[in-house]
Amino acid sequence: MIIQVNTDNNIEGNSELAQQFKTLLENSLERFGDKITRVEVHLSDDNSDKKFGTEDKRCLLEARLAGLQPLAVSHQAATTEQAVDGAVDKLMRSIDATLGKLDSQ
Fold first, then answer.
1. Fewer Cβ in 10 A, N or C end of the chain?
2. Is the model's pLDDT at 48 over the cut of 70?
3. Quick one: pLDDT at residue 105?
4. How would you write 72-105 as a 3-class SS string?
């Protein structure tokens, strides 16, 4: 599984941050095995120009499953870490539902 981490101009993206999120995704999604070929992480600060606000960090995850259309989920939270955690939970539920539908056919 290839994992690519992208940040907007308002979130400082460094290799340590990217590795932290890659490890989280690998551990969370390992049970899906080789069904997931690629995951793209897009991190942004939606209201950085205002410098205040509670749930202004956004994480968009796009997962590409072998032979299927990509799945995309997003989550907003007060911190980047919380946004990623919430998006990972949503992505796992979405993948479970998609693969469950395929298994029942």
1. C
2. no
3. 65
4. EEEEEECCHHHHHHHHHHHHHHHHHHHHHHHHCC
- CATH number of the 2-103 domain: 3.30.160.100
Amino acid at site 46: D
User: Is the pLDDT score of 97 beyond 80?
Assistant: yes
* Number of alpha carbons in the 13 Å side-chain half-sphere of residue 55: 9
Q: Is the pLDDT of residue 47 over 80?
A: no
Domain ranges for the chain: 2-103
- What are the Cα distances from residue 42, in Å, to 80, 97, 99? 11, 23, 24
* Residue among 48, 58, 55, 42 at smallest CA distance from 7: 42
Q: Provide the residue type at 16 as one letter.
A: E
pTM for the predicted model, two decimal places: 0.88
Angle formed by the axes of helices 80-103 and 15-29, to 10°? 30
